[in-house]
Structures are given as C-alpha cells and as structure tokens.
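Box 3.1 A note on notation
Throughout this textbook, protein chains are presented in two layers. The first layer is the amino acid sequence; the second is a token string describing backbone geometry. Keep the layers aligned when reading.
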Amino acid sequence: MRRLRALLLRLAGLSRKDRRERELAAEMESHLQMHIEDNLRTGMSAPEARRQALIKLGGVEQAKELIANAADCLSWKLVAGRALGARMLRKNPASQ
C-alpha cells in the first residue's frame, strides 16, 4: 500500500510540473508578444522587433529556468517550514 501511495504521489507531482511548465510557457509567450507589439509600434520590422524583444527578455528559456528554479526553491522552503512547525508542535504541544 505504501508503494502504491508513493507512486500516485509521484504521478501527481509530474502532472503538476507539466501544468506549471505549460502555464509558464504561455506567460513568457505573452510577455514576448507584448514586447514585439511595442517594438512594431516604434517602426521596427517584424524580424527586428522579435529579435529586440528576445534580447530584452534575456532569452526565453533562461527566464523559464530562473522562474522554475525559484518556484522549486520556494516549494522546498514551504515543506521545510511545515516540517519544522510539526516538530515544534510535537516538542511543545499547546496546553489547553
């Protein structure tokens, strides 16, 4: 039973990661399009507008990696905080 639960948790984690990656890709594409539109309004050609937008964002893939790493770090900090809270409550249960 323990192995089944562990497998289910891993599968759920994968689906959340895939969803998070899709949402992040959509968000980055949205920002890229906004920058391209701004560049087109200033009179740039379409290829140059895209190139400048990519430069301004600092590379889409690098930005995705930075955001994903920050999100993973935050997740681990939340898990560690919960674990610390649970340990503290076990050591010093609230008196009623």
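The helical segments are 2-41, 46-57, 60-91. The mean pLDDT is 76.
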